[in-house]
Amino acid sequence: MKTKDIQKTLETALLDNGNMEQGLYEYELEELLDELIESMIADNDDFLFAVTTQKNNLTGKLSSAMLLIEKSGAVHINEFARDRLKALWKDAYVRNMKKLIPAFAKQLQEGDIPINGVKTVLQA
């Protein structure tokens, strides 16, 4: 997979409200859930999210999946994860994603799953 193809797939899923694949979540992210929860607790993150992409061997089309875990223990998958992250980041979601997606694409192209723990900073 080329980095630019991965980036386009992530942009469609994360910025253009594209569909995400349940099967890809189950294949790549679900098995990481316990480990990610432990990491989030150890790092004292307020929430953690991960994204992935994969090429469908039958169609040749790239698909994506997403996981978001909140400090409360709530777990959100795919479109629900994206929508929850939009709510958590409010007006910063698009700006943050435009900065992060190129790095995510590079990590995925190199075979790594981007995992991002987030700490919330309260503004006075």
Note down, in words, how this protein is organized.
With 124 residues, this protein is α+β, with helices and mostly antiparallel strands. It has helices spanning 3-14, 22-29, 33-43, 79-89, 93-109, and strands at 47-55, 62-70, 75-77, 115-118. Strand 2 (62-70) and strand 3 form a beta hairpin. The model has no long low-confidence stretch (mean pLDDT 92).
- Sketch the topology as an H/E string, one letter per element: HHHEEEHHE
Estimated radius of gyration: 14 Å
How many distinct helices? 5
Mean pLDDT across the residues is: 92
Q: Give me the secondary-structure category.
A: alpha+beta
| Lateral arrangement of strands in the main beta sheet | 3-2-1-4
Strand elements, count:
4
First-to-last CA distance: 44 Å
Globular, elongated, flat, extended or rod-shaped: what is the shape? Answer: globular
Low-pLDDT windows of residues: none
**Roughly what fraction of the amino acids lie in strands?**
15-25%
Main pleated-sheet profile: 4 strands, antiparallel
Identify the notable features of this structure and list them briefly.
124 residues, globular, alpha+beta, four-stranded antiparallel sheet, 4 strands
Quick summary:
By secondary structure, the chain is α+β, with helices and mostly antiparallel strands. Helices cover 48% and strands 20% of the residues. It has one domain (3-116).
Topology:
Layout: H1 3-14, H2 22-29, H3 33-43, E1 47-55, E2 62-70, E3 75-77, H4 79-89, H5 93-109, E4 115-118
Antiparallel strand pairs: 1-2, 1-4, 2-3
Helix pairs in contact: 1-5
